[in-house]
Amino acid sequence: MEKQEGRAAAAVRLDVPWYEALSPDWGEWGGTDSSAAPAAQGPDSRGATETADIYAEVRRSAAFQEVRGRYRRFVIPASLAFLGWYVAYVVAATAAPELMARPVAGAVNVAMVAGLGQFLSTFLLTWAYARHARLHRDRAALELRWAVFDRRTRGAEGDAR
Amino acid sequence: MSGDHQPLALLLFSAFVAVTLGITTWVSRRRQGSAEEFYAGGRLFSPMENGFAIAGDYMSAASFLGISGLIALFGYDGMLYSVGFLVAWLVVLFLVAELVRNVGRFTLADVVAARMRERPVRIAAGTSSVTVSVLYLVAQMVGAGSLVALLLGGTSGAARTWTVIGVGALMVIHVSLGGMRATTWIQIVKAVLLMAGAIALTVLVLVRFHGNVNELLNTAAEQSGHGREFLAPGLRYGGDWTARIDFISLGLALVLGTAGLPHILSRFYTVPTALAARRSVIWSIGLIGGFYLMTIVLGFGAAALVGTDAVRASNAAGNTAVPLLALDLGGGAGSTGGTVLFAVVAAIAFATILAVVAGITLASSASVAHDLYASLKRAHTERRGEVAVARLAAAGIGAVAIALSLLARNLNVAFLVGLAFAVAASANLPVLLYSLFWRNFTTRGAVWSVYGGLIPAVLLVVVSPVVSGSPESILPGVDFAYFPLQNPGVVSIPLGFLAGWFGTVTSTEPPDEARHAETEVRSLTGAGAV
Lengths: 161, 530
What we know:
Chain B: GO terms for molecular function: acetate transmembrane transporter activity; symporter activity. Chain B: Keywords: Cell membrane, Membrane, Symport, Transmembrane, Transmembrane helix, Transport. Chain B: The chain crosses the membrane at residues 6-27, 52-74, 80-100, 121-139, 159-179, 191-209, 247-269, 281-306, 340-366, 387-407, 413-434, 446-467. Chain B: Its main location: membrane. Chain B: One of its GO terms (cellular component) is plasma membrane. The complex is a heterodimer of chains A (161) and B (530). Chain A has helices spanning 2-15, 36-41, 45-60, 62-95, 97-101, 110-136, 138-160, and strands at 103-105, 108-109. Chain A is built from seven helices and two strands. Chain A has a two-stranded antiparallel ribbon. Chain A is mainly α. Chain A has one domain (37-160). The longest helix of chain A has 34 residues, at 62-95. The N and C termini of chain A lie far apart (57 Å). Chain B is mainly α and 530 residues long. Chain B has one domain: Up-down Bundle (Sodium/glucose cotransporter), CATH 1.20.1730.10. Chain B is 75% helix and 0% strand. Chain B is built from 20 helices and no strands. Chain B starts with a helix and ends in a 5-residue tail after the last helix. At the A-B interface, helix 1, helix 3, helix 4, helix 5 and strand 2 of A face helix 5, helix 9, helix 10, helix 12 and helix 20 of B.
């Protein structure tokens, strides 16, 4: 399984050209070679307000609403589903052991199948989440990130002038 | 179990210690002493490296020895732990890992402080993080002490005491000199060793039964003395309703606690982006899932090949099931193969404890220096000063944990781990989820949610049968056990969420819209993330 995982990761890596891309504002907080940071985050309150405006504006934008909507429409139902399935499993194991002891095939009973089903559903949901994020969220999120970075840099240049 | 395996086990273990010390020296030879370097290892680990390190951080000796042992003793009921420990990672993957990576810098408190008044929330989240870490740390060190007594035959109190002191001191050296970079490499080495050991034993068990799982299960049921019941739930947690609710409580704590463990959260900061954090979690889910599947085979294998009674005779809690299984698979006591496998398993178990202790010590020293010290000190000092404090804090926490472990050395290890998970789920998870997802969450809500989960969780443990009122408790002579459950999760987790909600709706100050906009955009896009 490890090998498969590795191969899948390698394949994905080819699909996603920005895989190795670091944060555009990398090092901003670390204070290394960033010309934008001091102006955008300095004591100058005008810079701070502008930054806040940029974020508020981006949050209102349709593109961001779409990214957030896609994220939430996947994780909220999926989380409720796996938590519900897990709680049902734990409650069944404590409250209905007779049901869980019913044989299925050979030595394997309902409890065994349910337990292995938890493993299986965890692996499947992990795969589904990664796929959903890669296909429906990553590109849009990266574009938004660059948009924020561009505007902050421009704002900083404006201040400098 | 005595005699000839001891020198070999000690030799292998010394080799591991030498390797880790080598790593620490090599890593710290060019250390710059920046906070980025000390807490986050420079943030440039690859997802695969971080995935192995997360797995190494998470799979404690309690899992390797404890869960297999529980399965060998109680059959199916031990498996419930494996399931809870794995499913918990979906909470981390879906709701926590990427967002935390984007919003925070080094600790849990960073995420909350990004949109709240910094001082009160840092003190609150820092306090709960340190509490969780110390509980978890004590569990691991108590485990180290018992392991020595069990595996090396040194049943004397002195051997235990010196092991606990030795493990603690070694980890303080690793952490305070090598920081996150050394800790990460130790965990990677340990994860590889642990996986290799588990794979080897699993293959040997399956070969013994010619790959026939059905035969393995049937033999296990036969040898356990319980027959069919061994393969169904109820042997351990059947009993009365208190025991059953206690188990549901533990199940909730396991699945919700992982996402609130400070040493797991701090691992997401060691990779450059949220995408890399996601990939790390996917790697670790693969590793952890595979590992827990193998513990099931090992547990039933121990029941089938060693026999439940023999396991219980060696250690009442079942902690020696895997070493005994290794002895049997290698050819039995006295044979060379058995001796070698036994020594290897013992050495891996030590390595596991060392690596987990290192991760927790580092995370709690970050909480002390970055959250508590930085909020409580008056003047602004250089960040370099903060790292110096963190190095000192690692030593201080090590000392506290050593002292507590010596006091608590007769407590059950699995129980202590369950308790740490319950406190993490009650105090850390509500504030984390509210901060990331609830627009109207306020500073008061954040502070109340931390203390509203932390205080009930700790108090309920104090008045539980664990501390007093039964022959196995810490203070068997007195009885103030007013709360019937051993694990407080089922009560204290809802209380944490409730307190956060109540603090927010009664809050007089409005939520900070601008900073919420910034955190929300940052959490989902990574814009402005460190």
